[in-house]
Amino acid sequence: TWNVLLSFSGMVALIQLLFLPFFPESPPYLLMQKGDKPGCLKAMKQLWGEGNYHTEFDDLMKEKSVTKSTKIMNVLQVLKEPSVYPQLSIMLLLLLSLQLCGLSATANLQESIIPYVSLGVAICELISVIFCSSIIDRFGRRILLWGGYLLMALILLLLETSLLL
C-alpha cells in the first residue's frame, strides 16, 4: 500500500492547489514589491478580518523605507558576500548530509552506480536551488507555489496511473 501513501502527498498538493487562488497575496509582498497600498490594506482585511491595521501598515511602511536603501543581490553576488558564509556553510552541510544519508543505497540500485546517482541528485538539487532563487523575484512566490503544486500533483497522478496500468 505504499502507492496509497505516496498519493496522499499528491492529495495534499491538490487541495493546496485548489485553495491557493482564493487567498490574497502577502501584505508585505503587495506593499514592498508591488507598491500596492490599497491592495495591502485589502489583503490585511481579508486575512485578519475587520479591524484597524494602521499600526501594522505603518510598520510595513517603515520596513519598506529601511529596505529601500538596501541592494537586491543575485545568486552570484550572495555567494561572493563574506557575511553570508556561515549560513551558506550550514546549507551546504545539510545538503551534503542528505547525500550521505544512504537513500540511494536503499533504492535497490547496483552498488557501482550509487555514487553517480548521488552525484546526479546533488546536481539536480543545486540547479533547482539556483534556478528557483533566480526566478522567485521575477514571478513572485504565489505563481511559483501554484506552479510547483500543480506540477507535483500532475506527476503524482501520472505516477499513480502508470502504477495502476
TrEMBL record:
The keyword Lipid biosynthesis does not apply. PANTHER family: MAJOR FACILITATOR SUPERFAMILY (MFS) PROFILE DOMAIN-CONTAINING PROTEIN, SOLUTE CARRIER FAMILY 2. This is GTR9 protein. It is found in: Membrane. Pfam families: Sugar_tr. It comes from Ceuthmochares aereus. PROSITE patterns: MFS. InterPro entries: GLUT, MFS_dom, MFS_sugar_transport-like, MFS_trans_sf. It is a multi-pass membrane protein. One of its GO terms (cellular component) is plasma membrane. Residues 1-165 form the Major facilitator superfamily (MFS) profile domain. The chain crosses the membrane at residues 6-24, 113-136, 143-164. GO terms for biological process: D-glucose import; dehydroascorbic acid transport. One of its GO terms (molecular function) is D-glucose transmembrane transporter activity. The gene is Slc2a9_1. Keywords: Membrane, Transmembrane, Transmembrane helix.
